[in-house]
From TrEMBL:
Pfam families: Pribosyltran. One of its GO terms (molecular function) is glycosyltransferase activity. This is Phosphoribosyltransferase. The keyword Ion transport does not apply. Keywords: Glycosyltransferase, Transferase. InterPro entries: ComF/GntX_DNA_util-trans, PRTase-like, PRTase_dom.
Amino acid sequence: MRFKYWRDFLSLVLPETCCLCKRSLFPFEDQLCKICVSQLPVTNYHLIPEENDLKIKLLGLAPVNKVMAYLRFSKKGYSQKLLHQIKYKNKAELARVLGLNYGFLLKKNGYKDVWDYIVPVPLHERKLQIRGYNQSEQFAIGLADALETECKNLLLRKLPTETQTNKSRIERWENVSEVFETKNKDEIKDNSLLLVDDVMTTGATLASCAISLNSCKPRSIDMAVLAAGSYY
């Protein structure tokens, strides 16, 4: 009870603000105000998951069925600002809230009970220690909560990699082509997996992860990202 009073007092003195517009949040709002949520560049990839430009990027690279993104990435737009907050401003909870929002959208459109596990793209241990959390995992946890399934770490990043920013398509593939390996292989076999990352540009990272997962013979592999665009 004392904690509740202290939290209420802090909310009056230091009210939580929207991560985008910095307006004070109402108690029913979390990380983002309703106005900013309504203005997010939400895509319709969940309506055409097997026939879109994201799927085309992966053709010939990895075995994948559905490919989706919550937000359309645009430089200096809402999606880039959100990714910056999540990756560099210690906003792990923001990634989880966005995962919840997307999960509820997917659930509304018939995606409940589609996947056995939601699998985040892993960070290397060194980067995880520096950041303190894996933003893709936080997004995946939100998705799993909304879809009433389980987020499961079934991949390991063996080697640290350079940033993918400013690399060509070929350079991005070479940078991650042999970086990932699977763990808990028995939980991969014959299960339907949703592979999740924070952002997709060329699809090299997701393709490399999908190849590793596919070696353990899952029933299917689909992909979802927080944001996707032509460059990041």
